[in-house]
Amino acid sequence: MTPSSQGIPLSDRGFRYGQHFFETIAVRNGSPLFIERHVDRLVRAAHTHHFGEETRWQESLHDFLTTTQFEDGLIRVFLTAGEGSLADPVSDPKLCAFWEAASFPSCEERMRGIKVVCLKKHHGNEYWGVKNGNYWDHICALKEAHQAGASEGLVFDQKGILISATMANVILWLEKKEGLIQCVTPPTSSGARNGVVLSWACEEPLIGISSHEITRSDLSSVRALAITNSRLGVMPVYELDGVRLPEYARSLALANRYHSLYGV
């Protein structure tokens, strides 16, 4: 990889107003994971939010990801609105991509799991699940979780509907009637992101993840919990709001499955 001599100017609306979309791609064993899914999500975000008709960046990005030799880490991809005023339509979006070193969960960390808390303040808006330039609310939510002594926090809207974790999707195993366990995840209609790792998990036939609204009160029946994103992959949660989850082995099994396919 070599630095671009052109770059993106500070006058770009992606910098000035946060008008950009992004994807984070993990590189494991020298290979970027889920290239097609990440590119597809960026394309859909561009089309949904009218980021011009230009498509050459899509081809360039795909070529870059499939032909470049990467070390293990993270690839950050940004599609910006380009230059112009706030009211101008996006006609010439700019693409920026770079690699950065990153630490992935070790086997010991995965076995140990993490602590998660339910955040008391409501967060989220209509753009919560969109990976765009305004991440201030996500950052504030993550700080709230850290202040509570947890690695992550569960985010709810004003009605008490679960959206996601602050920086990740959520998979829950809920106990239903007669001791049956149902594996669920919040729907995108609640503001959850259509995450790449989550989509992989939903396609695992042995897990059987369904999608529907989850309330604060539903969490009283949580038996196991996992969070997912590109850096963590699938990370088991061993404690929620200070209570150890009794069927932690379920989330650990899914994490081990992901690690066996895409880890090191």
CATH superfamily of the largest domain: D-amino Acid Aminotransferase, subunit A, domain 2
Number of strands: 13
The geometry reads as globular
Number of domains: 2
N-to-C CA distance: 23 Å
Content of β-strand: 25-35%
Enumerate the spans where pLDDT stays under 50 for 5 or more consecutive residues.
none
Q: What is the CATH topology classification name of the largest domain?
A: D-amino Acid Aminotransferase, Chain A, domain 2
> What's the tally of helices?
7
Explain how this protein is built.
- With 264 residues, the chain is an alpha+beta fold.
- It folds into 2 domains: 13-100, Aminotransferase class 4, branched-chain amino acid transferase, N-terminal domain (D-amino Acid Aminotransferase, Chain A, domain 1, 2-Layer Sandwich), CATH 3.30.470; 107-262, D-amino Acid Aminotransferase, Chain A, domain 2 (Alpha-Beta Barrel), CATH 3.20.10.10.
- Helix content is 27%, strand content 27%.
- The strands form 2 sheets. Strands 5, 6, 7, 8, 9, 10, 11, 12 and 13 form a 9-stranded mixed beta sheet that branches. Strands 2-1-3-4 form a 4-stranded antiparallel beta sheet.
- Strand 9 (181-185), helix 6 and strand 10 (210-211) form a beta-alpha-beta unit.
- Helix 2 packs antiparallel against helix 3 (56-67).
- The longest helix has 15 residues, at 248-262.
- The two termini are 23 Å apart.
